[in-house]
Amino acid sequence: MAVLKMKFTQQRRVRLAQGLWLLSWLAVTCGAFIFSLGVYIKIELLRRDEVMENKEIHCVPNLLMMVGLASIGANWVASRVCQDSLDASRFPRWKVLLLLWFAVAALLCCLLLTVVILSYALQGRLEESLKVGLRNGIRFYKDTDVPGRCFQKETIDRLQMEFRCCGNNNFKDWFEVQWVSNRYLDFTSQEVKDRIRSNVDGRYLLDGVPFSCCNPASPRPCLQRHLTDSRAHYNYEYQSEELNLYSRGCRQALTDYYMSLMNSTGPGVLSVILIQISVLLSMRYLQTAVEGAMALESPEGESEGYILEKGVKETYADMKAKAVELLKFAQVDPASDGEGGEEGEKEADATEKAATPTPAS
Amino acid sequence: MALMVVKFDLKKRVKLAQTVWFMYWFAVLAGILVLSLGLFFKIELRKRSELMDNNESHFLPNLLITMGLIACGINAFGGKVCYDSLDPLKFAKWKPVLKSFLVFCLGFNALLVVTSLLCFVMRIPLQFTLAEGLKNGMKYYKDTDTPGRCYMKRTLDLMQMEFRCCGNDNYRDWFEIQWVSNRYLDFSSKEVKDRIGSNVDGQYLMDGVPFSCCNPSSPRPCIQYQMTNNSAHYSYDHYTEELNVWRRGCRDALLSYYGGIMNTIGALVFLVTVLEVAVTVGLQYVDTSLSTLSNPEDIESESEGFLLEKTVKETFTDIMAKMKSMGKGAKVEEGGEEGVATVS
């Protein structure tokens, strides 16, 4: 009992081939879209490479690019098959390739689905990577004279200004780190000596933040130093001041940005999966319908198209039997090199004898 | 003696019509391009209209939008005429309109050239508007509690950060105005009283700049206050310090930004003009080649296409004569009436 059988007249077959040809070109554009999406996400991730500690999240755009290219190739092949499908002399050469094509198309759909799942699942890893990367960035902010780290200050400043954030979790992260380089500290001054002695590591810590934390929307000029001291500034209350600095942490800001980027691509990827599945099903119908027509005496007559020749259970049992046979032949051949040659032949005869009654039944 | 005569047989006529039809579709796209350029420029001006005192002239973007729309219209019409030119029946209904349409196209092309020139010239009034607007903007920086001006601080800060500039000409412009609101000044403190007493207008002036002037590329944390006092900061010399704040003035920065936009738009409009002239010439050839068939009944016969029926001089004298005769006709009528009046 074939699965989802449909009758196809010659005209319907022609229509199916034409429709599938158009659909496969649409799928090619979708493949190009997926590829360019992968490229865009990769570029965005690379731009902030300096504040990310590991590159695990890069597997999402890499996978998208691979799948995009493979999908372009596979759907181009599908359009060629469509063009040849109505010509009985040229269609048979695609027979073997079609099996491979079905496997590739199914694999592409599965990969696209994994990409969507991965983009949600990797959020935790992305946050971890950003946490460590930003912590290092803030620690090395002052090292503008150390080769390899001299751009950290500029990177962190621009990041904070662009994403409107301050520090890792919030602005207090800057209080725990020395972010003023020693080159600009007057070690003879009493204030500097006091601050350095006030903590175990001998660091110059202050309750101040860099200028890039300042919020332009604040009604008063930015207060950067002595933030915890309400008396240091006129008409200033540390606990209730909200607009002076950016209140969001950069880790949160960056995670939100990347998550929204990947989530917004979700619907696009899902619709591409749907298009790919419909190309796959239509190709199967076309293949079976054209093969059925070629087997008929009059090639212009009706033929049947189906998804599976037998029911799902029977197809599964058939495939299992085929796989077992292949394994058996593989096992028999090495054994037949030695003494087991005769035995192997006998076994082969036995299987042949067993195989011959079945067509008659 | 016609100008630039070209002989045409049927195949050549068909090819000409197809080419001109194709070019007309490009010209429609070019018209859409001019329209979108005008819209883009208008939006850019609106975005920063606060910095120009809401005084900026929208004449140029409006002109670009109008020209873009007209270009789309006449190019679509021209394409339709070319498409119909291969069928003599359909072409016959367009024939009477064609001459005036071509004259209109000529006028439109001249206007396009003028627009392109304007794009390069309008830089100068924009310069003055920007200078005035920025000066006022800095004056209202501190007025974050005055309705209507409360967003000037944010606008200026964001602009200085985006365009990497400070002040009008340079950062010293901030030294000459009070940019700290009185609400945040402790008038009982000695320092504030000194500063206010030090100038005629009683303004709180200081040698400091807002945070948005800071340059992130500087190796040291930004020095915003007491900038001219070398002893206030360790290892600091304000004469040699270059990376601390942005050195460029915002007027220069904005002007070069808008100047760049206008130059690009001017160049693109000029290219569109060249395309328009080409399609007008093409349509003239299509029209003349179909009107000078050696055998009017046989469409396969040969014909001639030309740019102008007579030479340039003769065409010019013809036009002058026509205008004179129109003028004389009016005068004769007036003279006749007067004559009648005197006789009676």
Automatic annotation (TrEMBL), chain A:
The record's annotation in Gene3D superfamilies points to: Tetraspanin (1.10.1450.10)
Q: Please name the CDD domains in this protein's record.
A: peripherin_like_LEL
Q: Does the keyword Membrane apply?
A: yes
**Any Gene Ontology biological process:** visual perception
- Where in the cell does this protein reside? Membrane
Report membrane topology. Multi-pass membrane protein
Q: Say yes or no: keyword GTP-binding present.
A: no
| Regions crossing the membrane | 20-41, 61-78, 98-122
One GO location term (cellular component): plasma membrane
Query: Which InterPro entries does UniProt cross-reference here?
Result: Peripherin/rom-1, Peripherin/rom-1_CS, Peripherin_LEL, Tetraspanin/Peripherin, Tetraspanin_EC2_sf
Q: Which Pfam families does the record cross-reference, listed alphabetically? A: Tetraspanin
What is the name of this protein? Retinal outer segment membrane protein 1b
UniProtKB/TrEMBL annotation, chain B:
Which GO cellular component terms, listed alphabetically, does the Swiss-Prot or TrEMBL entry include?
A: plasma membrane
Against InterPro entries, the record matches this protein to: Peripherin/rom-1, Peripherin/rom-1_CS, Peripherin_LEL, Tetraspanin/Peripherin, Tetraspanin_EC2_sf
What topology in the membrane does the UniProt record assign?
Multi-pass membrane protein
Give UniProt keywords alphabetically.
Answer: Cell adhesion, Disulfide bond, Glycoprotein, Membrane, Transmembrane, Transmembrane helix
Query: Any one Gene Ontology biological process term?
Result: cell adhesion
Q: Does the record carry Membrane as a key word? A: yes
Q: Which superkingdom?
A: Eukaryota
The record, for SUPFAM superfamilies, names: Tetraspanin
Please list every transmembrane segment annotated in the UniProt record, as residue ranges. Answer: 20-41, 62-81, 101-121
Query: Where does the record say this protein resides?
Result: Membrane
Q: Which family does it belong to?
A: Belongs to the PRPH2/ROM1 family.
Q: What is this protein called?
A: Peripherin-2
Instruction: Look up and give the organism this protein is from.
Output: Cyprinodon variegatus (Sheepshead minnow)
